[in-house]
Amino acid sequence: MSVIRPSSALPNPPYGMGTRFYPVEDVELMPDNEFILNFLPYSAAKKTVFIVHGFTDSHQVEWPLKAKDSLLEQEDVNKITVDWAPGACSNYLKATANARLCGAQLYRFQIGRAHV
Question: Do 102 and 52 touch, CB atoms closer than 8 A?
Answer without folding.
Answer: yes
